[in-house]
Give the backbone structure.
Amino acid sequence: MLNIIPNYHPIMVHFSIALMVVSFGVLLLGDLFKTKLIFYRECLIVSRWCLWFAALASVFTVGAGFHAYYTVTHDTMSHKIMTIHRNWGIVSFIIIWLAAVWSFMHYRRGETVNRWFAACLAIAVGLVMITGWYGAELVFRYGLGVKSIPQAEPSGHQHTGSEHSVSKKMVMENDAGHGH
């Protein structure tokens, strides 16, 4: 198994987000061109499949998210944000699955989607965006799940203007220990 720091949640979450946004965006696009029946039907098909794949991806996203919630090192403040992120994630997960089941029922009955379904999908996308915002806060504001950047050493590595100079000693040390 690949060792991903901190876990697979940062990878999986992007599938869920992208598929939900595309599902809703294509649904709206199809609605704009409802008079072009073939295009409208194709948009419904793409929207439906993206939603179904988003629901499937969300299972892995939430599972990896719970793993991260219980294993990532954090402080009190980031724990509060993690809990808010988790709670929004659970609500998002439920609404995504409700929309996916509703979509499947429409499909099985041969029905097209209605405004209520489009509203449900819009709410699901909104919830995913809120959840994503809190996730971004955890990573970019609190540094959760991110390896620390090494402290800069004053000797040997200098930046002046637009040039980047590294001493010969530093290059040799890099070759011995790690790549730069």
The helical segments are 9-32, 37-71, 76-109, 115-141, 168-177. Residues 167-180 have pLDDT under 50 and may be disordered. Strands lie at 157-160, 163-166.
